[in-house]
Amino acid sequence: MSIKLYNSLTRSKEDFKTIEENKVKMYVCGPTVYNYIHIGNARPAIVFDTVRRYLEYAGYDVEYVLNFTDVDDKLIKAANEMGEEVPEIAERFIEAYKEDVSKLNVKEAVHHPRVTETMDQIIEFISGLIDKGFAYSVEGDVYFKTRAFDNYGKLSHQSIDELRSGARIQVGEKKKDPLDFALWKKAKPDEISWESPWGEGRPGWHIECSAMAKEYLGDTIDIHAGGQDLTFPHHENEIAQSEAHNDKSFANYWLHNGYIQIENEKMSKSLGNFILVHDLVEKHDPNVVRFFMLSVHYRNPINFSDELLASAKNSYDRIKTAYENLLHRRASSLDLTEQEDWINTIKAHKNNFIDEMNDDFNTANAITVLFDLSKDANIYLREDQTSTEVIDLFLSAFDEMVGVLGFSLQTEELLDEDIDQLIEERIQARKDKNFARADEIRDQLKEEGILLEDTAQGTRWRRQ
């Protein structure tokens, strides 16, 4: 069964065929780095990392590009509010992004282009659009001539007339048509800017991705991905710019993940339900957060709540327990024969997993396969004697599946020095009569398999 994916451009599932054999050129729209990322940003990071992992598992070489928007209205506003320079803020939050997503086990992109490092290519791209009659300059600003591109609206499936009815020219804009959009913005006083043929300024938002995709992946790419909210106008404008400039199809497949809601409401700062990944992974196991994000098909909306995250933890723990029980039992297993039925059962689970992932990367159903694998592992472990070969096949199947899904079932043991440090903190907490904290540390260590014994000579500890 070949990989089928849902193409937002055609609104249908299609067989996946690459431009180059066994190679995937994949571009994912990254964050605007003016603050810590929220869980809405985390979903595409996790989802498309999983797509990449599965494509690599299927034998493809994936050239994965995720950009950073490091100059933008939001960055300029943040710089003014914080009294810092735009590059300083961008650098800080790029590092914060990388730290946050690495905790969620998101692999590093092959290329992480930045707007500020692609300025020459952006300016050249805009010049090419002007030369071809698809753009025009007005007093230092440059706009894309939307009506000059015949297929505008094909991604969002809207006609030019439908789009025209909702378009407006904002105060200060000099564009000729409400549908036209900015490629280059004239610099305001004391604003970060670059030299260009049209004067000091900086790029518009949409042009950056067209230029970076062309620079790193070429005129036509296999997959372009991002959040559903980017379909219009951002991705629509990317198509118009790139295809007008290159005279070629821009991306063969468009993937979009669904929205996240918080307690069935839209996430927003005004509602006070704005959750930062930075805070979330401090309170919850990042493996559980990732498991939760993949428990719903990527195209469907997902609702976030503490109760749903707790439920995801219970589900994750069931799978992890089965895996740990296999590891424990392996030491006492034997070289047994006549295990063909179990070997075939494990192979069937692996095939089911592949079938689900081949069907538009259906991680929700793939996790169901993991539960089925766990159930059969638990049944097998109830037998009086177990085979080393079968145990290893079970473990290998778990490793392959969770490797694709990108979470870990391995428990990281506390180092001796970490245990000693926690014990010292507990001793001090008891001296300070902070018994709640002392009990919390004891419980934390117990969960990690560390038992404490308070004696007249001090506190001793041992691993279970």
Automatic annotation (TrEMBL):
The modification Phosphoserine is found at residue 270. Gene3D superfamilies: Cysteine-tRNA ligase, C-terminal anti-codon recognition domain, HUPs. SMART domains: DALR_2. Binds 1 zinc ion per subunit. Its main location: cytoplasm. Zn(2+) binds at residues 29, 209, 234, 238. GO terms for cellular component: cytosol. Pfam families: CysS_C, DALR_2, tRNA-synt_1e. Its EC number is 6.1.1.16. Its cofactor is Zn(2+). It comes from the Bacteria. Monomer. This is Cysteine--tRNA ligase.
